[in-house]
Amino acid sequence: MQEARIIDGVALAAQIDEEVTAVVSQLEEKSGKRPHLAVVVVGEDPASQIYVANKVRRCKKVGIDSKELRYSADLSEAELLSIIDDLSNDDDIHGILLQLPLPKGMDTHKVIHAINPAKDVDGFHPLNFGRFMAGLDHALAPCTPQGCLRLLRMVVDDFEGKDATVIGCSNIVGKPMAELLLQQGCSVTSVHHLSRDIEGKCRAADIIVAAAGSPHLVKADWVKPGAVIIDVGINRLRDLGKGSGIVGDVDFDEVKKVASAITPVPGGVGPQTISYLLVNTVRAFNNQLDIVPDEKLGL
Ligand code: NAD
């Protein structure tokens, strides 16, 4: 059997950057304004510092204005709520990204709830999550699953009636991913760490999305020949005592011999989370300025 097509997430991210750049320039012509994202970081979590630098770099590349607000871990929750409130009411800010995790002792749900839902570019506010789960138009949906769907569209022409298994049920990835696939017309099975016979449920699937955070969980004999595999997992080899770099939730070298298409780690899903942060920032801008989105560009 032929080896799987490797779905190139780096090329897709470059294409989305071009699309967003074109839309931002059109919007500036139309409204005289550019989308403006505020990125709030509390504490010194090293991974967060890298993620934020990447987000700011990609914003700059596509013409989205951004500002970073950095605070030390001893910021109080009340002070953070007041900062979020100011940004929520600032007409010059169209998107607010609260970098997670927050330092221990802060109530993440309470702080997310304080973000103006119209500016919640992560799609984590309960109002946006509810709107998205209800399938309403123009809802701000979580970024990573939107990126996974875009990657799937590169290799799947017709989703209707396909069987999909999503491993992991978090609010950030697994649950919204299952919902997006359901909205495309798939029959979706969601599995988690308490599920029985995960292998069997994967083997029955035309599409597998693995988002468990468990290195090389999905083996070749879990995969139906010709299935499409999206690997969301980011597992640091250093944390596993196995050197440096990252691996996904899928045993890539073996599974690529069975699947028809597969995302690599790194270079697959990873760049799309920022791609859809950019897209959501443009959507939030459009919603706030009552601009009808350019449907041709899907924005
Ligand atoms: P999470 O810890 O919040 O949720 C993990 C889910 O997987 C849970 O529902 C749990 O029950 C399930 N699970 C854990 N081990 C399992 C197992 N052995 N079998 C079946 N189910 C299992 O994690 P998350 O935030 O959803 O992230 C999942 C993975 O995706 C992590 O590796 C994370 O780093 C990665 N991630 C990547 C991106 C990206 O941009 N590529 C974005 C977000 C998350």
Key terms:
299 residues; 11 strands; binds nicotinamide-adenine-dinucleotide; 10 helices; three-stranded parallel beta sheet; alpha/beta
Describe this structure in words.
The chain has ten helices and eleven strands. The strands form three sheets. The protein has a six-stranded parallel β-sheet with strand order 1-11-8-7-5-6. The chain has a three-stranded parallel β-sheet with strand order 3-2-4, with helices on both faces. Strands 9-10 form a two-stranded antiparallel sheet. It has 299 residues and is of the alpha/beta class. The chain folds into two domains: 31-117, Leucine Dehydrogenase, chain A, domain 1 (Rossmann fold, 3-Layer(aba) Sandwich), CATH 3.40.50.10860; 143-270, NAD(P)-binding Rossmann-like Domain (Rossmann fold). The mean pLDDT is 95. Nicotinamide-adenine-dinucleotide (NAD) binds at residues 144, 167-170, 172-174, 191-193, 198, 211-214, 217, 232-235, 269-270, 273.
Level-2 CATH architecture of the largest domain: 3-Layer(aba) Sandwich
The proportion of residues forming helix, as a percent range, comes to 25-40%
Structural class: alpha/beta
Which fold name is given in CATH as the topology of the largest domain?
A: Rossmann fold
Average pLDDT for all residues = 95
CATH superfamily of the largest domain: NAD(P)-binding Rossmann-like Domain
Beta-strand content: 5-15%
In CATH's first tier, which class of the largest domain applies? Alpha Beta
